[in-house]
Amino acid sequence: MDELVLMDLPDSGLEKIGVDSIKKVALNLIDELQPDILLSYDSKVGLYGHSDHRIVGQAVEEVFLEQKGKTGFSPSRLFQVTLCQKQIDVAMKLSAGFQRNYPEDPALGLPTPDFSIRTQPHFAKVKEVMKAHQSQQKVLKDLMPFHDRVPTWIYSRVFDREYFVEVK
């Protein structure tokens, strides 16, 4: 990934637009960029309960499943970001937002990861991307306490992995 694409869509207001409109935006962007794989949020929770993330995850998943294998549709795989159970347990103890938004029923929670990728070498870029949206500043403080006070090289050793599940 070389760039972050920011679109002129309402931050914290995608539910008002609707999943069908977001699917059109996603399909147009896929047609334009021609990616080999897709990375998205999960379609059930939106990682930590953010409604924009959930609806984007749902839209991308539906587009992928509807278009996969069709001529002109470049992505062959879709991976959704998720958390391992240990991370969920820690988030439930530390994060008020996670406690408020995460489903009580485990069946409605995040999908179990298929694999993880070490992110420590790229952590500065991860933080930069997370700061792209103004609405994320409060979320960052809640989900990643002290991220702005602890040196990146130390923080990246604590949060050194991203977990993914493949949509098939």
In words, what does this structure look like?
Helices cover 47% and strands 13% of the residues. It is an alpha+beta fold. It has a four-stranded mixed sheet, covered by helices on one side. The longest helix has 17 residues, at 51-67. It is globular, with a radius of gyration of 16 Å. It has a domain at 14-119 and 162-167. The two termini are 22 Å apart.
Question: Which descriptors would you attach to this protein?
Answer:
single chain; 168 residues; alpha+beta; 4 strands; 47% helix
Give a quick rundown of the structure:
The protein has helices at 14-17, 19-33, 46-49, 51-67, 85-94, 96-101, 123-130, 136-143, 152-158; strands at 37-41, 77-82, 115-118, 161-167.
DSSP strand tally:
4
Output the helix-strand order: HHEHHEHHEHHHE
- Low-pLDDT stretches are none
Share in β-strands:
5-15%
Radius of gyration: 16 Å
Major sheet: arrangement of strands: 1-2-4-3
**What is the overall shape?**
globular
In helices, the fraction of residues equals 40-55%
Secondary structure category:
alpha+beta
**Average pLDDT figure:** 87
Q: Report, as a whole number of angstroms, the end-to-end distance.
A: 22 Å
Largest sheet: 4 strands, mixed
How many helices does DSSP assign? 9
